[in-house]
User: Which sequence fits this backbone?
């Protein structure tokens, strides 16, 4: 390899064009993403505890942090969203719904049973979309 080829190779590595191993294991991304999903539902469950300011405050924090982690890890796993496929857009809509659930609980827009049912359906739909569109299975 000549000096100029080596410089181009190094420049490609700096620019991120080199073919190297991923920085993080994709299974770690998936495990953290699933853990964040558990955090979202744990936060929603804590918000449903009546007359407990501690549960509402802690539940809100867990819910918000888990939502942020879930969103970031979801897009990190996608790397570049496939614009010709719409399944990931549906998952973003589900994420938005799960983010709005604390407002639905606080304003008592629906009965608690309906909110829990909708959250379970949304969680099932998000899980099914994630599993149905795996690019590489476990």
Assistant:
């Amino acid at each position: 390899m000549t000096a100029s080829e080596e410089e181009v190779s190094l420049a490609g590595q700096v620019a991120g064009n080199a073919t190297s191993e991923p920085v993080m294991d994709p299974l770690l991304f998936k495990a953290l993403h699933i853990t964040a999903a558990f955090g979202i539902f744990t936060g929603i469950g804590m918000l449903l505890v009546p007359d407990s300011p501690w549960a509402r405050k802690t539940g809100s924090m867990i819910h918000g942090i888990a939502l942020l982690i879930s969103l970031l890890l979801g897009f990190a796993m996608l790397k570049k969203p496939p614009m010709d496929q719409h399944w990931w857009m549906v998952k973003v809509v589900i994420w938005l719904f799960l983010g709005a659930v604390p407002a639905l609980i606080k304003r008592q827009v629906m009965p608690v049973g309906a909110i829990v049912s909708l959250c379970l359906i949304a969680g099932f739909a998000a899980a099914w979309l994630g599993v149905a569109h795996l690019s590489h299975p476990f």
